[in-house]
## 1
Amino acid sequence: MNALGVSYSFKVDVDTHDGMRDGVPRLLETFDRFGVKATFFLSFGPDNSGKAVWNLFRARGFLRKMLRTGAPKLYGWRTILSGTLLPARLIAAKHPDIVRRISDEGHEVEVHAWDHRLWQDHLDRLTRDRIREQFARAFECFERILGRRPRAVAAPAWRATATSLQVQDGLGLEYASDVRGGEFGFPELDGYRSTTLQIPTTQPCLEELLTLGRKDLDACAEEVLAVPAGARRPEGRGAPLVVIPLHAEVEGGVYAPFLEILLRATAARSARIQTLHEKASEILSSAVSPPVIRVRAQPMAGRAGCVALAVPLDGEA
Ligand SMILES: [Zn+2]
């Protein structure tokens, strides 16, 4: 694969307390060794990861599912029981020193969530006010720690609705990253056209590939680094952008070697790596206005539940 002319971005989501405390410092050391700057989206509020397990527990085949997904190995039992049998710990709100360290080391820091689980499991049922409140709490905490407003948000589990996009449009953001697949642009979902630039996640995440039965990490890395079919260089809008999703709990944990493989490969290809903010600035300063992208809530291979998926426009690759 020829990586020339492609711009890679690493989008790190932090979903759990232990991912923040243990995974992020480990990721920072690895990025530092390769001289790479990433974009971190942080969950600030309670770690209710255990609620997902509780839902699984109530479903049939609990143990089989737990073992198949490798959840105990990936997350540890403290996280798996967090918010149910054990009290929920705050995530980034409890670790202001690590939040500042990410920023001080030159990475981009933005907002992922207040209550990640609430958004992921119940977004469809959240009122506009409740969604606003989720952002308000995360933004307040972010500003207290970093002394500035966030520039961007990224929806937990890539879940978005017309209402969530509408609320985000009121936040004065530079961009949002809620969508899977496709090109950047202004998303149209359930009849609502957002005015906030959307930079989608274009690549699969490692957990999805593992769920689909892939075993070899080198082959997974090839898949994650491949420029997606249909990625194009829109006139005046720079290089096709490949956005690679990482999770502090995964690549900052037992799958740390996977990030090493990715970074060695991008270094060997002399690939261009940008933060999402750098990419957004380029897009927004271009003379060509970003296109409208059509988005729909759809299931996706390797994931439970629907994600906000870009739908190819008629007549386009
Ligand atoms: Zn997340």
## 2
Amino acid sequence: MNREADLATLRGGPALDLLVIGGGITGAGIALEAARAGARVALVEARDFASGTSSRSSKLVHGGLRYLAQGKIGLMRESVHERNALLRESAGLVRPLRFVLPVREGDKHGRRWLGVGLAIYDAVAGARSRRWLATPELMEQLPMLGPRGLQGGWSYLDAQTDDARLVLRLLAEARSLGALTVNYVAADDLTRGAGGVDGATLRDVVSGARFELRASCVINATGVWADVLRGALGRMPKLRPLRGSHMLLPGWRLPVAQAVAFFHPDDSRPVFALPWEGMTLVGTTDLDHRDGLDREPGITRAEFDYLLKALQTQFPALGLAAGDVVSTWSGVRPVVSSGHAIDPSREAREHLVIEEDGLISVTGGKLTTFRSTALQALQLAGRRVAVLKLAGAAAPVLARPAAAVLAALRGLPDEWQARWIARFGADAAGVRACALDGELASIANTATCWAELRWACRAEAVVHLDDLLLRRTRLGLLLRDGAAGILSRLAGIVQQELRWSDAQWAGEVARYGELIGRCHGVPAGPPP
Ligand SMILES: Cc1cc2nc3c(=O)[nH]c(=O)nc-3n(C[C@H](O)[C@H](O)[C@H](O)COP(=O)(O)OP(=O)(O)OC[C@H]3O[C@@H](n4cnc5c(N)ncnc54)[C@H](O)[C@@H]3O)c2cc1C
């Protein structure tokens, strides 16, 4: 991917069948399915790909057990179906994850209630994964659980992924089918013709240059920002932005081989701790987000204390404290508002696909259901774009790597081969080929190696340091202080590949350090 070349093609090219605005999971899914359906499609993203909510999720590809409690069986069925398809067709980028739900005396939901819910979950999935664990077996699996009132626990299967890499893989597939995808290009306004919206005024955020682009159909896939473009058409807002925050602890401090979900002692909301990238990911909160959407969200001290208290109550023997937290992040959910001042957690998580003055807006929903959402949006787009020949859910989500790619990886440890195929698809061969001496070595205690950084700089449209450390790789979250300890070695790779001067490197390091301190660390405030 060469951003400058793609931008030039975008500016100089003919009108498109489809312009997708927004490079999160929703836009990426739409671009892929549209390219697969034969459309001339381009996607523009105002910041970095996946830099919105789609790199800030809990990384679960899940059926949504809690939708059951809300009576949203349809949503759960769709989610389970999509989860199963992704497990089959994502070549390891979506992996099974076993959950355990410890049941304690006095819990909001007991063994029987959860058992019925899980039986329905299994029935929808078409396979039994649930199992009741008596207390001794549960304690064998999770010896650090506090014994207070423990009655046993339910175990069942869901799945997890790396959300940012999933977006990047969808975009890579879309490009391989002819789509243009360009980051740091913002849609500042919409253009209108006789039949309604017929294009957008775009701005290259890097150079500031503006240009117009025409398309038979424009799709607003800007997530929590969707009301901004809708507002340009004079439409009333529909979204209630809700913030959810997470924290990451070293796996050895909170060793969970499987996900553990439990109820928070203060308000009985579900909280979970799950293994991810060798660390333990803890989430999440659910609060009205009142800051401006253009300001990067970060965890507040109150949210931080809330999550820490959940851990301290559930795992009292571990003595977990603020200093154990390696990093934090927050995301803002694009939740379609019911219009009532209800508890945020009771707002429905369904997606919205609407057409207004020719603009199709797609928002709300989940990472898990991106493909069914994309197909629904394209059904609507089909009225304006004659060429669309939707393959529907019949086509696999991600293509299997060709034999030549597998051959290029031969000799690497099996787990690396699997990991690179999952994260890079056909580009996995490029990752290996670009590695210089010593770059096929893991960085600190992570599964990421130096060659992945070099490859990202060379071929994955990195514009800023945070693109590289927070989304192409997740090192900025997995290592303390945003991976400050690797920056001196990283400088050589980045400056060589991106031709950054010393001054540019220093400027990027300062910008990145400020972002990490403000949005990804332990928030200031007194300890609980
Ligand atoms: C805390 C939290 C946890 C979650 N956990 C899960 C989970 O475990 N599993 C799950 O399935 N779902 C989960 N979700 C939901 C899921 O993350 C979101 O539904 C999904 O990421 C939304 O994707 P999107 O592409 O619609 O929005 P985004 O990812 O936000 O993408 C929209 C993009 O549009 C861009 N944009 C905005 N305005 C413009 C413009 N004018 N021009 C160009 N580009 C523009 C933005 O920069 C942004 O990158 C979670 C959400 C949150 C907040």
## 3
Amino acid sequence: MTEADVVVIGAGASGLMCALEAGKRGRKVMVLDHANKAGKKILMSGGGRCNFTNYTIEPENYFSHNPHFCKSALSRYSQWDFLSLIAKHQIPYHERDHGQLFCNDSARDILDMLLAECENAGVVIRLNTHIDAVEQATDQRFHIKTATDCITAQSLVVATGGLSIPKMGATPLGYQIAQQFGIKVWPTRAGLVPFTLQPEDKERLSVLSGIAVPCVVSNDRQSFNENVLFTHRGLSGPAVLQISSYWQPGETVMINWLPKWDAAAELKLKRQQKLKNKVKTILEEHLPKRLLCSLLPEEWLKCSLQDLSDRQIQKMAEQLHHWLIKPGGTEGYRTAEVTCGGVDCDALSSKTMVSKQVPGLYFIGEVVDVTGWLGGYNFQWAWSSGWCAGQYV
Ligand SMILES: Cc1cc2nc3c(=O)[nH]c(=O)nc-3n(C[C@H](O)[C@H](O)[C@H](O)COP(=O)(O)OP(=O)(O)OC[C@H]3O[C@@H](n4cnc5c(N)ncnc54)[C@H](O)[C@@H]3O)c2cc1C
């Protein structure tokens, strides 16, 4: 039997942050992970450069069955706190669109920083450790049974992440532990994930593979102004990944291909100015030729602007500004960046992340029903929730 004050299951973003904070408080912390390396998702994130936070972090950048839950942690450990840690370790970084912050060199800088902080704080990290069972004894200590021994701890932190990228070691263990202790888990689904298309759309749109267009993608609940990318499997790009988190199977998604150009008004104006161009020539200044040919019938594109009626212009504009597509599905956990749903926030304290009904049991990071947008929001949630738990475990 090995004794610790705190056992953290999961040596990912939130688990390492929690561990180093608890270690700094003098707690004897042990982190267990079944993977052969810590922080694998950190290493693969942001195309290898880790989009570790964002200059603008608001509760509105997250969704959850309890949208208020994330507020406390995000304000108590903010992006500025994480940036102080980055500064302490002199990690060079840069800003990209929408305030997203990336490492200049490599995501490894972030992982090395967390591991160095853990080492300084005396945290023990045990990899290749398979968890067989978790129990709480009558003295409220947790018994974590691994393939080789049993570890007991006063606090147990579940930081096992979501289900995305099973190849990287994602498992449902965190949800199972919650359910074992009677804690509600909201159904999970893949988020920040490309859409697949219905067979007929796939065939029709396959010629567009490789085209990326800035546009606005929306449904009844959300709207994102970023790029859409056609791939050989379906639709991807930041705008599609973002809306996918808000998408329910069977729903239609709307794309405005020309958010900055009022097609009806502009075409009417040009017609009034007696411009004799073909519709195609005018629209090609704003959208790739291949895309136009898929969006509008050939006879419309071939038409001279002067031959168009108001009604035809209106129909054309409708198609360009309110293009509807019903995705066949998503690529699922295989390629998803996050998992939506998870451990019910109402079962946890938003200040400490401890279970309201099981003393000493904490849930942090992606396993909790808090999902961020694309842009560094999910890591910030991992840092913030991990930090908060680290102050109390
Ligand atoms: C390809 C990709 C790119 C991403 N890029 C970004 C980005 O640039 N910016 C951003 O903000 N977010 C990004 N994310 C999301 C981000 O990686 C996660 O939200 C974040 O890592 C969640 O942290 P976590 O600590 O909750 O879980 P994780 O970091 O996933 O850590 C969970 C840990 O638990 C371990 N574990 C799981 N099951 C078990 C088990 N049964 N026994 C023992 N250990 C277990 C895993 O091995 C893992 O080490 C990306 C995700 C992916 C998949």
## 4
Amino acid sequence: MVERPYVLLSCGMSIDGYVDDVAAERLLLSNDADFDRVDAVRAGCDAILVGAATVRSDDPRLMVRSAARRDARTARGQRPTPIKVTVTSRCDLDPDARFFVLGDVEKLVYCAGAAVDAAQERLGDRATVIDGGDPVDLHRVTADLYARGVRRLMVEGGGTMNTQFLTAGLADELQLAVAPFFVGDSRAPRFVHDGDFPWGPQRRATLAEVRQIGDVVLLRYALSDRYDAGG
Ligand SMILES: NC(=O)c1ccc[n+]([C@@H]2O[C@H](COP(=O)([O-])OP(=O)(O)OC[C@H]3O[C@@H](n4cnc5c(N)ncnc54)[C@H](OP(=O)(O)O)[C@@H]3O)[C@@H](O)[C@H]2O)c1
């Protein structure tokens, strides 16, 4: 069996299952306490992955915010913040995006084979470009991350990425934070797209934990027998 990291999907969504609205600015779904919880989860991972559309639309930092958590990572011999990873077929990515510019840590771009040369030219020394297949194959990505020392991978969206990890059976855990409001606009992106998911009415996922965090509820699902309750 090909070895791969423990894969944890983390997502915030509205009561009606949307992960954003249609406005240009990023929609904040969680509260401060939940953002701090997510920061702690990040600090416990070796790498954080988002899809290229999220890099373009949200311009996320994807860094550990708490100085104490960064110090604790350094004391353990790790970089202060996890490796950043994205996946793209065409590499329409801005080398000045916060994903590339912030954090003294490696940035990995898994790119479709046909676009690797152009991606390398575009990103220069801001990232390591890796041929991920055509289209990029997440089995190959996770195996390569494992070979690079990544043992715990956090996937922070968006919906295209979530859908592929779930339908490929590559997710060990899902952390869903449900915010107490509706988006109510079907043009907005959802947590996942259509797909053939391993969990349905005949095969229910295992709800491992429910935690109230102020006005947000955290649902943790164990999606494989590798589920790490203490993680
Ligand atoms: N609430 C939350 O927790 C949360 C978290 C993250 C994002 N979001 C929201 O999610 C939305 C973005 O989600 P999304 O579904 O549009 O996009 P996404 O999952 O962030 O990224 C999709 C992109 O990733 C690349 N990609 C994915 N799989 C690939 C494959 N197998 N091979 C090659 N390239 C691949 C493609 O990039 P190219 O187009 O470059 O080829 C594709 O367009 C935004 O509105 C964002 O705000 C919400």
